[in-house]
Amino acid sequence: MSKTLNLRILRIGESLYAGEANRISLKSGTGMVTILPDHTPLITSVEPCTIHVTSSNGSEHRFTADGGVLEVAHNTCTVLL
User: Is this structure's pTM higher than 0.90?
Assistant: First the structure.
């Protein structure tokens, strides 16, 4: 079994995604970033973009972001929109 990230994508008052993921790609304040399992801890802004998520079962998900914050630590990734 491959290693995964625990991913939460949250917007005020709602949870858009909560579960295991193999990767997440989005536009940060410094450019495009892809988060994989065992990523270095990171806190960065999220720029307006489409967030691409590959879940642990291989399905693809897309979310629209108008901006926000990304935090990654200990195979947990949280996106606040």
Answer: yes
Rounded-to-integer distance, Cα 2 and Cα 30, Å = 29
Q: Angle 38-42-43 (CA atoms, 0-180°, nearest 5)?
A: 150
Q: In the Cβ-directed half-sphere of 18, how many Cα atoms lie within 13 Å?
A: 4
Q: What does the pLDDT look like over 33-59, one tens digit per residue? A: 999 999 999 999 999 999 999 999 999
Amino acid at 41: P
